[in-house]
Amino acid sequence: MLTLLTNDDGIFAPGLAAMERALTRLGDVVAVAPSTEQSGVGHAITFLTPLTAKQVFDGHSSRGWAVDGSPADAVKLGITQFLPRRPDIVVSGINSGLNAGINVLYSGTVAAAIEGAFFGITSVAVSLEWDEHADYDRAAAIAIDVIAELLRRSPPAGSLFNLNIPTSALTGRRELRVVPMSTARYGEAYERRVDPRGRSYYWATNDPPPPPSPNESDVTALAAGYVTLTPLDYDLTHRAAIDELAEGVWRLG
Length: 253
Fold this sequence. Notes:
The chain is built from seven helices and eleven strands. It has helices at 14-23, 71-82, 108-118, 136-152, 168-171, 218-223, 239-246; strands at residues 2-6, 28-34, 53-58, 61-67, 89-96, 122-128, 160-165, 176-178, 190-194, 200-204, 227-232.
C-alpha cells in the first residue's frame, strides 16, 4: 500500500515524522508537505504564482518533498507529480492542536485531506491536542490503529475522515467515539493592543468557548477524554432548500 502523507505544520514538523514512522506498518509512505507552517489557511491553493518544490533529506535519507505553498497544493502536486503511482490513502497530520467543531472549516490539515478526497482517495486528517511536550509517537500509535480499522472496513473511494486525539488518551483511557462535528460558534473575540508607535492592532482569541450542548459532538466527546472520529463530506449543498427554492417561477429583469 502507498500512502501520501502531508500536513499544515510543515515538512519538518515532529507530528509528520511520527506519523510517517507509524504508517510504515501499512506499506510505503511518501511525504509531500508545505515547506513552512500553513496553519489556518483552509483550502487555499496557489494559481497566480508558480509553485516551487524540492526534495529534502536527513543525511542520505529522503524526508520527502517540501512545497512552497498550501497543504492543498502539496496534495495536488504529490498525487500528480511526485508519487510513483496514485496513492491508496492520504493522511494529513499529526497536527499540533485539535481540529474540531467549526475549526474544521479553517484547518489546513483538514483541507489537505479534503483535497485527497477530491481525487477519489480515502483520506484522513489527524490532530492531537496541543501540548508543548506532545508525545506524537503515542498519538501516531493510536492513529494507525484507527486508520488500519478504517481500511479493514473498506470505505467507499473518496471517503473523508477527521480524527482528533485528546492529550488524556495518550496515558489514560483510549476509547473512540464516532461523533458529528459541532457547529457551535466560538472564538469571536479579539484583544486590542497598541504597538510602540501608538497604532492599534488586534489579536484573535479563542473566547468565548463553545457553549455547552446536550448533544454529543466532537467538541463534547473530546472534552470528556474520548478519541473522536467524524466522517466528513465536502459537498456544501443545502439539499432540503433546493426543492423549496425551486417552487414557483423566478422572474428576472
